[in-house]
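job 3f2a | input accepted
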Amino acid sequence: MQQKGTGRFMRPSLLYALIVAPLLLAACTQFPELDAAVSDSARAADYPALVNVEPILARTKDSGPAPEETRSDLESRVAALRNRAARLKRTSVIDAPARTRLDQEPGTNG
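job 3f2a | predicted structure (110 res):
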């Protein structure tokens, strides 16, 4: 006869306590003073100047490969991979004697 509470799973109250206890301990943690990490010179500094983003974006338009080149490169890679897959599908990785053994019913010896 099995005693109450000695089953495979923990009692809900114990499970609840194991989950809640670390959370309560974390809530009591002393956090560092983040305001003290900022120096007086940084606190007195002006805000950074806002920069127009258009000139930056204009410089990036000419960098990198052209979309037409990228598309043709990807299409050629796709075609090569499809050809390779078709070639692999036609190739047998198991020789004829091994295929014969695999096709037999289990427990029969040829």
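job 3f2a | DSSP finds five helices and no strands in the chain.
job 3f2a | closed
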